[in-house]
Specification:
disordered N terminus, six-stranded antiparallel sheet
Length: 304
């Protein structure tokens, strides 16, 4: 399963206002990694209001200043969790180059899940959506034929994409960037963080397995990550390139070329030939919870 955001996959923020990465406290996202078992997903990500089977399947990317050890809170599949995933639970690393620009218009299918959507053969890649909020105070809905996330943010929270047909990286070099429609509000007019990770910023599975808290814990599955944290997994030395987006009440077409994603580590920019995660992260709440009401629609890659 690809966590584009959880287990690494794609992300491109908005067209409105671009703020410097240090302008707000950011939470790391999930990646676009291949989906694993519900148990593996639950162990990798904070518990969500959804079923365990809908959680991301990858390892957590790094970077948020207020996450454990100063970095990202989750290292699940770099491009996302596993929402009722079908297909090989242990796909081989590497995917065919992406040629289809459309990812999802988040149309709710009759009889389908009301809180998540799956992408089929007609999408850029097979997978779906996930969200996380360990307190269960954030909800996800597809009933209005767009991705609607609302509730109260009182803990590390975010959302992203996963893939379940192959394990990233994804070669998206045929496209100029990523785009989607965004509207709603975040209390306090705080920015929404959108990030896209590539293999250079993803924490390598070999490092994760060599630095387990308990040597008896099962090894993380192989990934394409090449980053080895300087001191700890969340010290910020392995950080996803990102963009900060301003959210407005009216729908805005957010079109982000790959060059707009900045602030990654050890490489500052995203490499579209090796996408491992696509995700959005909500600002850290600190001591004061805040409300959100976000809508995302027509998620796609930008065609030349």
């Amino acid at each position: 399963m690809l966590l584009l955001g959880c287990n690494e996959i794609f992300g491109i923020p908005d067209a409105p206002q671009l703020l410097p990465p240090e302008a707000a406290a950011l939470e790391p996202g999930l990646s676009l990694a291949s989906a694993g078992s519900p148990d593996e997903q639950a162990a990798a990500l904070p518990s969500a209001e959804e079923d365990a089977a809908n959680l991301p399947l990858g390892l957590v990317p790094g970077g948020a200043p207020d996450a454990p050890d100063g970095g990202s809170p989750i290292d699940a599949p770099t491009l996302p969790p596993d929402a009722d995933v079908t297909g090989d639970p242990n796909p081989l690393l590497g995917c065919a180059p992406l040629t289809q620009p459309s990812i999802s218009d988040f149309t709710n299918s009759p009889g389908g899940s009301a809180s998540s959507v799956s992408f089929g053969m007609d999408a850029a890649f097979q997978g779906g959506t996930y969200f996380y909020s360990s307190s269960g105070s954030l909800s996800s809905s597809m009933v209005e034929d767009n991705w609607h996330l609302s509730g109260t943010v009182d803990t590390n929270s975010g959302f992203g994409l996963y893939s379940n047909a192959c394990q990233p990286p994804f070669d998206s070099a045929a496209f100029l960037g990523i785009a989607f429609n965004l509207w709603g509000h975040i209390d306090g007019d705080q920015p929404l963080v959108f990030f896209v990770e590539s293999a250079a910023q993803q924490v390598s599975s070999s490092w994760v397995n060599a630095n387990k808290a308990d040597p008896a814990d099962p090894d993380a599955p192989p990934n394409s990550g090449r980053c080895s944290p300087a001191t700890s997994r969340y010290d910020g030395s392995c950080r996803e390139p990102r963009v900060l987006l301003t959210v407005t009440s009216e729908p805005v077409a957010v079109v982000l070329p790959w060059a707009d994603f900045v602030g990654g580590s050890p490489e500052a920019a995203v490499d579209p030939r090796e996408l491992t995660a696509i995700a959005w992260s909500l600002p850290a709440p600190g001591d004061t919870p805040y409300g959100v009401d976000l809508h995302i629609d027509d998620l796609r890659f930008v065609v030349p």
